[in-house]
């Protein structure tokens, strides 16, 4: 009788283990499937960062202004960039009390390079024979701009006032001088031979630097990229672990239930990383929206 009882207990325990194991596998499969589905959905929600909109940088270049004939033989004074900037700002004050443009050394440099290139290659246009315009000149010299513009003038101007007056008498050039979106200016003036005549060429470069808009934290953007790559790595790891758990076998010396514990711990870490990354993306996207709005309002 005792032997029969012991046999019955052993058989009952064995059957219970198999039944319980099937139930555990069934429940675990359902839960794991649900978790993985939710994980993938969360990745879809946080995967996109908004883009900084620099595709619509604006360049203003009215036609190059030639002042000839009546001024060619006048004995003019030397033109000075400092005076041209001063008189330009005076014109802004007299036409709507506009704020003065700040002299920018980088724009001075790009204007000087344009001036020398026109004398050297004997052209008088906004675009050089090599296809370089004021936008490219600004970028080549490290001027990160939202808006950039150029005024050109050629002639024998009697003085700086006469030069600026000639620009102000031209609607397109006047619009550049009085543009309320510009904040900075660079100027270059020089005398030399052009088409066999001794003339002055003047260049004004106007600019609105990118720095006037709130910064977008590129370090934050880099952190988001790192986190998103880590999220993808963990997702692949979870998928592999789930396949092994579904087989219900000991893997690399780790028992079935220990595998489940590791899986659940990794799920928690995964979800925490998703939460943190989503917060960072929200913060980054807010910065991008503000920056893009600033750009659109300053063009």
Question: What can you tell me about this protein's structure?
Answer:
There is one protein chain. With 299 residues, the chain is α/β, with parallel strands linked by helices. It is 57% helix and 14% strand. It contains eight helices and six strands. It has helices at residues 2-46, 81-94, 105-121, 134-140, 160-168, 171-177, 218-247, 256-297, and strands at residues 58-60, 65-67, 102-103, 145-155, 184-194, 197-209. Strands 1, 2, 3, 4, 5 and 6 form a six-stranded mixed beta sheet that branches. A hairpin with a 2-residue loop joins strand 5 and strand 6 (197-209). Helix 1 packs antiparallel against helix 7, helix 2 (81-94) crosses helix 5 (160-168) and helix 3 packs across helix 4. The longest helix has 45 residues, at 2-46. The radius of gyration is 36 Å and the shape is elongated. It starts with a helix and ends with a helix. Residues 4-21, 34-45 and 69-75 have low confidence and may be disordered.
């Amino acid at each position: 009788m005792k032997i029969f009882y012991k046999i019955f207990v052993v058989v009952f325990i064995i059957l219970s283990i198999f039944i319980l194991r099937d139930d555990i596998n069934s429940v675990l499969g359902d839960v794991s499937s649900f978790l993985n589905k939710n994980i993938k959905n969360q990745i879809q929600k946080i995967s996109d960062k908004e883009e900084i909109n620099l595709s619509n940088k604006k360049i203003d270049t009215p036609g190059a202004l030639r002042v000839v004939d009546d001024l060619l033989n006048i004995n003019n004074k030397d033109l000075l960039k400092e005076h041209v900037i001063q008189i330009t700002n005076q014109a802004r004050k007299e036409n709507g009390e506009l704020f003065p443009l700040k002299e920018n050394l980088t724009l001075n440099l790009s204007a000087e390079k344009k001036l020398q290139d026109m004398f050297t290659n004997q052209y008088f246009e906004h675009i050089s024979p090599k296809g370089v315009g004021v936008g490219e000149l600004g970028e080549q010299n490290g001027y990160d701009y939202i808006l950039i513009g150029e005024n050109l003038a050629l002639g024998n101007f009697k003085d700086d006032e006469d030069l600026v007056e000639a620009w102000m008498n031209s609607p397109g050039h006047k619009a550049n001088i009085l543009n309320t979106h510009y904040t900075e200016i660079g100027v270059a003036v020089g005398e030399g031979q052009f088409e066999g005549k001794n003339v002055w060429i003047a260049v004004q470069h106007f600019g609105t630097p990118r720095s006037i808009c709130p910064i977008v934290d590129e370090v934050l953007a880099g952190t988001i990229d790192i986190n998103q790559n880590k999220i993808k790595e963990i997702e692949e790891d979870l998928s592999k672990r789930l396949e092994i758990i579904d087989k219900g076998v000991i893997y690399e010396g780790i028992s079935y239930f220990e595998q489940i514990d590791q899986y659940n711990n990794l799920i928690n870490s995964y979800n925490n990383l998703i939460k943190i990354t989503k917060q960072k993306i929200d913060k980054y996207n807010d910065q991008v929206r503000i920056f893009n709005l600033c750009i659109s309002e300053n063009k």
